[in-house]
Amino acid sequence: MKRLRAIFLTPAAALMALTLAVPTVIICAYSFLTRGVYGGVERPFTLENYTRLLDPLYAMIFARSFWIAGVATALCIALGFPLALFIARSGARKNLYLSLVILPFWTSFLIRTYAWMFLLRDTGLINTMLQELHVIRQPLPMLYNDGAVILGLVYGFLPFAVLPLYATLERLDRSLLEAAADLGARPRDTLFRVIIPLCAPGIRAGAILVFVPCLGTYLTSDLLGGSKTILIGNLVQNQFTASRDWPFGAAASVMLMLVALALLFAVRRRGEELL
Amino acid sequence: MTPTIDSRPVLELKKVSKRFPTHTAVKEVSLEVAHGEFFSLLGPSGCGKTTTLRMIAGFEAPTEGEVWLNGARIDHLPPYRRNVNTVFQNYALFPHLTVRGNIEFGLRQKNETRQSEGDIAARVATVLDQVRMTGKESRMPPELSGGERQRVALARSLVLAPDVLLLDEPLSALDPQLRKQVRAELKDLQRRSGVTFLFVTHDQEEALAMSDRIAVMNAGAVEQTGPPQEIYQRPRTRFVASFLGAMNWIDGAGVRPECTRISYEPRLSRACAKGAVTEPRPSGRARDPRRGIVTRCVFLGSAVHVETRLESGESVIAQIPPTESFIEGDSVQIWWDANDELRFDA
Lengths: 275, 346
Prior knowledge:
With 275 residues, chain A is mainly α. Chain A contains 13 helices and 2 strands, in the order αββαααααααααααα.
């Protein structure tokens, strides 16, 4: 039995070690080294990469990333909750609606983000139509700003919020809702005093699943935010490509990881599993 | 204290029916429940008693008929606008709230009355005392025993002073030992509080022991309504007769085991046989004895049920005191008083 378990677990464990543990160790090591002239890393070991992160310029990028990820997460939960509630109560059509939620995953995220560019840009579908209809004269500046980035993130990560919310709402004991109504609670009171408190684990899980990837995003901010919106993800990407400062990029990503982990522990409840 | 039963009904159902796409759950049920009454809806599972309760609470809308509470028609109102409260079968306590939080839940909804914090605290303290849960206010529902949960569920509803308290098989989740004790407590609580109870159960013993009146339901319809003794002794239908207790059917007449007399064969004298515990009533209208064979003796503690097979083929049970006994295979004779016979048209 023990051997059987070892046989079946080894491939997955080895893959995880190879693709997660090893690169993490490498990145950590890089972050303490000095940059090479043409990229790569050289000795000696140094803490300079981390002290550089304290520069207000970079602190601002971190703060901005947190802000945008936070807003996107809040919107995902706010939009996802009613949707999840609707799906959980739609009886036999549950599976249809759930697969519709997951449907976008069938297309590459990159292509879907380009589609948003096509919709939002000055000569895009929305602006052209509004101009043709003489609603506006000048195109609305919908692309290359924080709003576009948040829109792209909410669009991309909404399913990650809906699924855990759905899971908790679906398990919710209906007799508790009847009990609330029986005790005089209007539907709105039942929502705020019974449903939401009981779905706190789902809300937390959904928030983490959305917030962490949003914090590290670079594709959405790069395509929809233009050069004006630099987030941590873009900073790291730049250091490894254009700037050829691998150790600094490594330090920034280690910092991002630490902050994300700290957040996970912070929202974890006593006795509850991580996620 | 004796219950003060007002003659004016607090709750009235007028020809209430509930049809679901696949079946009819409730057929033209009419009931009148008086103020301060302990009223039971008794019937087997699937007889429509819970659906009836849910229509009173407001979780189901009647397909036809009217529900009146305190002189006002309520069948169109949502549950949160009806002054009735429910004790659910699984209690449905809010798992994220303490005992106190659960009890305060309803009080904090009725904010039209602008209750002060002190007022709420006083009412919670009173009801906690009533259900003997004082000192356990800050427990969470999962930390409570089944009996305690039931008491919190009761307290949560009683604190709102409902016109009628609806109880949906509240004892069925308890173990049998506890059930009898809780039964007495519940009846006591109902008397002391003076609140009208509408109690749904499939347990005839429970209904007989606790109720002022019982409505026996079968297949969605009420077959008979009346005080426990009347229902038991003068059942109007075959169904009511068999549902309320064991019943022997001999030649189309029903005779309860405790009215069925049994004695050993040779002694044909009607009165003096061993095991003929209760003498025939002075009416002297005893039926002619019938011969039978003892097939089994079931010791029940407070009595013994002697199962016999008559020569004519019917199985008959006779109840005798626990000190008496018969041996399997013995020839016996069975008789009963004509006054104890129950006859039905159907």
